[in-house]
Design a protein that fits this description.
By secondary structure, the protein is an all-alpha fold. It is 66% helix and 0% strand. It contains 8 helices and no strands. The protein is globular.
């Protein structure tokens, strides 16, 4: 099977995660602005929203690792250099910088200094090393996830983005490398297993002709721009609706 089809499948999975991200933010914004509570969003526990957002973030970051491993398929390990990932790294790093500047200029009490885009950019810097042994990296990734979730505030004063700071400064969209970098490495390991498996781990070919699959894949190909613009659009929409309602 060609890599084109594999990337189509990954794009569709990213599109599915994007759909859930839009649903989550719509629920969160409706709850925050109080436009309408006919769905009982205000009665839903904070734990539900925490778990939902965690699942969405974990799926996105896992797919980062999957995509990187598929992209490197057929490339000799000695040819894996930072230049191999330079194009996506530039896009993600520039977007992360824009998000940080915008969060500061917006006078928010929760500036974004190390959000999900910053973490993805950092993971891309490490890709030339981690993809040389993706299954070992996956094992290490599992350890990152376990340690990160079991010990969210490890003692020791280290840089906050590592997740090791005992009393980190309050930040918005905070994604420390413990546990979140672990999901990227786990994704690379999963992709390596699938690529080298004698079994066919593929979607039914007929799905590619379905409208829903094409829509998900199209959204997945434009994940970055959708991630950047969807929440400002939703916030503006629900703020207007809430203002009109009041």
């Amino acid at each position: 099977m060609s890599n084109n089809r594999r990337f189509w499948e990954i794009d569709a999975l990213r599109g599915f995660a994007l759909l859930h991200m839009a649903i989550f933010h719509s629920m969160f914004d409706l709850r925050y602005f109080g436009v309408d509570d006919r769905f009982g969003l205000k009665q839903m526990s904070d734990r539900f929203f925490d778990h939902y957002s965690t699942a969405i973030a974990a799926s996105f970051l896992t797919l980062v690792g999957v995509s990187a491993r598929v992209r490197s398929q057929g490339t000799a390990t000695q040819r894996l250099r930072l230049s191999f990932f330079l194009q996506p790294l530039r896009r993600v790093a520039a977007s992360a910088f824009i998000v940080s500047v915008a969060s500061v200029l917006a006078h928010t009490s929760l500036p974004i200094y190390f959000g999900v885009l910053h973490l993805i950019a950092f993971s891309l810097l490490l890709m030339p090393f981690t993809l040389r042994a993706p299954r070992f990296s996956a094992v290490l990734g599992v350890a990152f996830v376990v340690v990160g979730f079991s010990e969210p505030q490890l003692h020791g004063i280290v840089y906050e983005w590592t997740g090791l700071a005992h009393n980190p400064v309050r930040m918005g969209d905070y994604f420390p490398i413990f546990p979140w970098l672990g999901f990227v490495w786990v994704g690379a390991g999963i992709a390596d297993f699938i690529l080298k498996s004698p079994h066919s781990w593929r979607w039914p070919e007929s799905w590619g002709k379905q409208l829903w699959a094409r829509a998900l894949s199209t959204g997945g190909r434009h994940t970055l721009i959708i991630y950047l613009v969807h929440q400002p659009i939703l916030v503006g929409l629900f703020w207007v609706l809430g203002w009109v309602r009041w």
